[in-house]
Design brief:
Structural class: alpha+beta
Distance between the termini: 44 Å
Oligomer: single chain
Shape: elongated
Helix content: 40-55%
Order of helices and strands: HHHHHHHEHHEHEE
Strand content: 5-15%
Strand order of the largest sheet: 1-2-4-3
């Protein structure tokens, strides 16, 4: 198995369980990997590229460290020059949000469910200019990227008390 930015976190940890310790050293955000429910749900669909964004670290550094810890050769120079993205391009913060719906996905995640379909369903119900408030235990990077591809504006204000607040806005046509 090669370790690349596209490698899914669950697949990586299934093949190389010792890398959990390395990931925890890379960022405190990866402490969520200790939660078996999150390992069975979110980690299965989250790539290392997305995990690096959640952890606020450079994906090249992350992959290089993980490959070294797994006893694999480091990425070549072409990989290092191509991979440079570090964070999700969140939309500008809004001054007066028009929040019409609030969805707390923490209970679903704790129950071992993936709330992706529920979030998309509710986001699609929004009218242009309306916003939905999403509460989660960690930044929902894969979901944010999916919604942005569908044209939604995403704002991620500061988090508090272990809860991440993400605002999802349906833009005007």
């Amino acid at each position: 198995m090669q370790i690349t930015p596209d490698t899914k976190v669950a697949e990586l940890l299934d093949r190389f369980p010792q890398l959990e310790t390395a990931m925890l050293k890379l960022s405190p955000a990866f402490a969520a990997l200790k939660n078996p429910v999150l390992r069975k749900t979110v980690a299965k669909v989250t790539s290392l590229q997305q995990a690096a964004k959640v952890g606020g670290i450079n994906v090249v550094e992350m992959v290089t460290i993980l490959r070294k810890e797994a006893g694999l050769s480091p990425p070549d120079e072409h990989f290092r020059s191509v991979q440079s993205e570090k964070s999700v391009p969140f939309s500008e913060k809004t001054d007066s949000p028009n929040i019409v719906y609030r969805l707390d996905v923490r209970p679903a995640i704790e129950a071992g469910e993936n709330p992706k379909e529920a979030v998309i369903k509710e986001a699609e119900k929004l009218l242009p200019g309306e916003m939905m408030e999403l509460l989660s235990p960690f930044p929902p990077i894969p979901l944010i990227e999916l919604l942005q591809k569908r044209g939604f504006r995403i704002t991620a204000p500061e988090s508090a008390n272990g809860t991440i607040l993400t605002l999802i806005e349906k833009p005007a046509p």
